[in-house]
UniProtKB/TrEMBL annotation:
Basic and acidic residues bias spans: 72-87
GO biological process, alphabetically ordered: translation
Name of the protein this chain belongs to: Large ribosomal subunit protein uL24
Domain of life: Bacteria
Listed Pfam families: KOW (PF00467), ribosomal_L24 (PF17136)
Family under the similarity heading: Belongs to the universal ribosomal protein uL24 family.
Assembly: Part of the 50S ribosomal subunit.
Family annotation (PROSITE patterns): RIBOSOMAL_L24
GO cellular component, one term: ribosome
Gene symbol of the encoding locus: rplX
Function: One of the proteins that surrounds the polypeptide exit tunnel on the outside of the subunit. One of two assembly initiator proteins, it binds directly to the 5'-end of the 23S rRNA, where it nucleates assembly of the 50S subunit.
Molecular functions (GO terms): rRNA binding; structural constituent of ribosome
Region listing for Disordered, in residue ranges: 42-87
Length: 87
C-alpha cells in the first residue's frame, strides 16, 4: 500500500474532496485509511463506566485508499506528475 501512518494526504474524491489531513491508521486487508478531520461520523452511545454521560460521539470514519493522494512532506506538493507538468 502506498499510504503509511503519519503521511499527509489530500482527499481527491467524495464529500470531503480537497481536505487535507494526517493518516491515523491503515487497514491493509480492506484497503482503507482513517484521516484526521475527514469523514466525520456520529455514533450514539449508551452510558457506561468509561463514558458516564453517554450521548453522541463524533469520530473519523475510514475512506478507501484510492480516494486519497500522498502529499510530499518537504515541499507540500502532490506526487502526481500530471499536476506538475500543468504548472
Amino acid at each position: 500500500m502506498f499510504v503509511k501512518t503519519g503521511d499527509k494526504v489530500k482527499v481527491i474524491t467524495g464529500k470531503d474532496k480537497g481536505k487535507e489531513g494526517i493518516v491515523l491508521s491503515v487497514n491493509v486487508k480492506k484497503n482503507r485509511v482513517v484521516v484526521k478531520g475527514v469523514n466525520k461520523i456520529k455514533k450514539h452511545q449508551k452510558p457506561s463506566q468509561t463514558n458516564a454521560n453517554g450521548g453522541v460521539v463524533e469520530s473519523e470514519g475510514s475512506i478507501h485508499a484510492s480516494n486519497v493522494k500522498v502529499i510530499a512532506k518537504s515541499e507540500g506538493k502532490t506526487n502526481d506528475k500530471k499536476e506538475e507538468t500543468k504548472k
